[in-house]
Specification:
Number of helices: 4
Radius of gyration: 13 Å
Distance between the termini: 15 Å
Largest sheet: none
CATH superfamily: DnaJ domain
Helix content: over 70%
Strand content: under 5%
Shape: elongated
CATH topology: Helix Hairpins
C-alpha cells in the first residue's frame, strides 16, 4: 500500500479512530468496524446514490491505507 502524500502515522491513527497506544487487537477491531460501515458493497444494498458510493469508496481506501501504515509501523 502506498502512503498518501503528507500522511503521518498520527493521521493513520486518527482515520482509524484509535489512540497510538491502542493494542493491536483494538486497532484491528476498529479497522474492521470502519470498513464494515463504509464499504461500498454494503451501501449499495441500502440504495444510496452514486455520489455517496464514490465517497464511500474513497473513505474505504483511506481506511485501508491507514491500517496498512499502522500494521507496517507495528510489524503485525
Amino acid at each position: 500500500a502506498r502512503r498518501p502524500a503528507g500522511a503521518t502515522l498520527e493521521d493513520a491513527y486518527a482515520i482509524l479512530n484509535v489512540s497510538p497506544d491502542a493494542s493491536d487487537g483494538e486497532v484491528k477491531k476498529a479497522y474492521r468496524r470502519l470498513l464494515s460501515q463504509h464499504h461500498p458493497d454494503k451501501l449499495v444494498a441500502k440504495g444510496l446514490p452514486e455520489e455517496m458510493m464514490k465517497m464511500a469508496a474513497k473513505k474505504t481506501h483511506e481506511i485501508r491505507q491507514a491500517y496498512e501504515m499502522v500494521k507496517e509501523a507495528r510489524g503485525f
